[in-house]
Amino acid sequence: MKTILVTGGCGFIGSNFIRYTLAAESGMRIVNFDALTYAGNLENLKGVLDGQRLIFVRGDIRDKTAVSGLFNKYDFDCVINFAAESHVDRSFADPELFCQTNVGGVVNLLNAAKEFWREGKGFKAGKRFLQISTDEVYGSLGKEGSFSENSPLDPHSPYSAGKASADLFVKAYFDTYGLPCLITRCSNNFGPRQFPEKLIPLVFNNACALRPVPIYGDGLQVRDWLYVSDHCAAIEAVLAKGGLGQVYNIGGHNEKTNLEIVRAVIGYVGQNINPKAGDNLITHVADRPGHDRRCAVDSAKIQSELGWRPQTTFEKGLAATLDWYKNNPEWLKNATSGKYKAYYEKMYLNR
Ligand code: NAD
Ligand code: DAU
Questions:
Q1: N or C: which end of the chain has fewer CB within 10 A?
Q2: How far apart (Å, rounded) are the C-alpha atoms in residues 137 and 185?
């Protein structure tokens, strides 16, 4: 039986990936190593955390001793690193944390793999280290075109600078030590269990309560949206068949302006939850510093080499996402209690 280390498996994409993998693959054991930061939630694994096919270990990828102990205990076949500080807006207030986790934590994991996977002058056969990166490492586009895997890295936030740095470390460990590494760079995900600091669940939460919906600047920034299970399928394909040392872009070909997204979410809330919710809730607030105007990646490589294609239309994915939030009010309530209020006030009041 293969054993995979999944880091950050209590967050949005990690928990969806674990669910996706356990549902599809019977002969896989997953060890989920997660620090349970504000974004990590064991509720996300409710019903699948059985201690056999899925084992949970609370720990921090910045902690060298804990990471070595984990590699010592389990002979991992693969590592998939989802763990990160993932929110761009939070990176402005605490860039150091983003550097420590998103760069230092990744180097710790790479070092452990390098040490524990070594055999003779190389590495044991079949090992694979997959770094989950982001399209934001490429920066911003004009009206036309999209980024390929060969586009230069041009990050504009402490978050994306950390992710780009980690990508360069992963590349360096492949180039200098031959560590069997791969990198994926995905566009904006949406789906169940996304923390409500991110655009879609934040708008849903505010619109349900008829609170103002903040749009940064003119709201004409463009993101390429991908339903989370399509991202999970892409990760599975790269892990199984991707070329070592390779980078794979993953995108949804669903480019939307933020205003389009916000109107669609408010429309759903107006129809299904609170008939008073309408576009009058949209409130333009100060823009995000260094805000990428348009992000889009070309996924031709993963499509032609690995046969992956997105399966979920934007409309179907959005309906499934918002239905999930509608049907899980306790989850949303828990996520927006505690420190969320202080975060929200600091980020949005007087903006
Ligand atoms: P998230 O914030 O929802 O989850 C992050 C998880 O990592 C949480 O469970 C948290 O507890 C854990 N974590 C944070 N710091 C840790 C540490 N030091 N040690 C161990 N665990 C730690 O993030 P997400 O949206 O699920 O993103 C997952 C990964 O995918 C990130 O690497 C992110 O950069 C990347 N990514 C995200 C998107 C997106 O649209 N959300 C798109 C492309 C790539
Ligand atoms: O592209 C991949 C990236 O997508 C990932 O690497 C990040 O981890 C993930 O958080 C996401 O980053 P974004 O910054 O694009 O996501 P966010 O949901 O924060 O914002 C989406 C867009 O909406 C962005 O242009 C900023 C805007 N926005 C966001 C919020 C939270 C608003 O206008 N108002 C808001 O309140």
A1: N
A2: 8
Whole-number Å distance between alpha carbons of 244 and 266: 43
Q: Which residues contact 351 (CB under 8 A, 6 or more apart)?
A: 214, 285, 286
Q: Phi, psi at residue 96, to the nearest 5°?
A: -65, -45
Among candidate residues 342, 203, 336, 217, the one with its CA nearest the CA of residue 273: 203
Kindly report the average pLDDT of the chain as a whole number: 97
pTM above 0.90, yes or no: yes
Alpha-carbon gap, residue 59 to 5, rounded angstroms? 12
- Distance in Å, CA 92 to ligand 2 centroid: 13
CA of 84 to the centre of ligand 1 (A): 4
Which tops the pLDDT comparison, 341 or 321? 321
What is the SS3 assignment for 12? helix
Under 8 Å between Cβ of 136 and 160: yes
Nearest CA to ligand 1 atom 42: 188
